[in-house]
Automatic annotation (TrEMBL):
It holds the Pfam family TPR_19. This is TPR repeat-containing protein. Keywords: Membrane, Repeat, TPR repeat, Transmembrane, Transmembrane helix. It comes from Thermincola potens (strain JR). TPR repeats lie at residues 73-106, 107-140, 141-174, 175-208.
Length: 219
């Protein structure tokens, strides 16, 4: 049985508003399929925290890469992300902009722009950048997941569930997506739905610290 077809059925409900119940139904259905297959996905979306010395070494490395190959967009994105780790958001955005000037279809550059704008709380700019990344890479789950995170931060929970559901369709069984559906549910006031999602995230990744802490918080 495919995990995609049932999810598509839930995406077009009789009501226009996408509800948390529908999101939970979709991810639980996907969870059943993937658990039966023994396929577990861990929390591997965000980069590991790096100490300052390591970040500075990384910065020097990518600065040298950019100097040697200034017209390679990937080098610009890697350098920009390193500036992001240093919380130098202006320099990060500068590198991402150069990357899209070099290659207007480079989805990762727009995604990273969205990431920086989110941390700057420039949510409209973040959504504009993420809209471009999702259009260029419609099968990449992280673009929709980040869009869902931004909508959650804005308090727009219906939009958040829609984006996170799309992320789940692109990567069923992702502990990260399940966790962020839980975050959206918790912030919207649905504690029971949030706990259900945190438990599902832990089913896929028992060592998912954020999900465990969130679940403990709701007990």
């Amino acid at each position: 049985m495919s995990s995609v077809a049932p999810a598509q059925g839930f995406q077009q409900p009789s009501e226009k508003t996408f509800t948390l119940f529908q999101a939970i139904a979709i991810v639980l259905l996907a969870a059943t399929v993937f658990i039966a297959a023994g396929f577990l996905i861990g929390k591997n979306f965000f980069w590991n925290n790096l100490d300052q010395d390591r970040i500075n070494q990384q910065l020097a490395y990518f600065e040298a890469k950019v100097e040697a190959e200034p017209r390679v967009p990937e080098n610009r994105v890697n350098l920009g992300y390193t500036y992001y780790l240093k919380k130098d958001y202006d320099m990060a955005l500068k590198q991402f902009q150069i990357a899209v000037n070099l290659d207007p279809k480079y989805a990762d550059a727009y995604y990273n722009m969205g990431l920086v704008y989110k941390d700057m709380k420039r949510y409209d700019d973040a959504l504009e950048a993420l809209a471009k990344s999702t259009k260029l890479a419609p099968l990449d789950y992280k673009n929709f997941m980040m869009m869902g995170i931004v909508y959650t931060d804005m308090g727009k929970y219906d939009e958040a569930f829609k984006a996170l559901n799309k992320a789940n369709q692109n990567r069923p069984g992702s502990a990260d997506v399940l966790y962020y559906i839980g975050v959206a549910a918790e912030k919207s006031g649905d504690k029971e739905g949030a706990a259900s999602m945190y438990k599902e995230a832990l089913n896929y990744d028992p060592n998912f610290k954020d999900a465990q802490e969130a679940l403990n918080r709701l007990k």
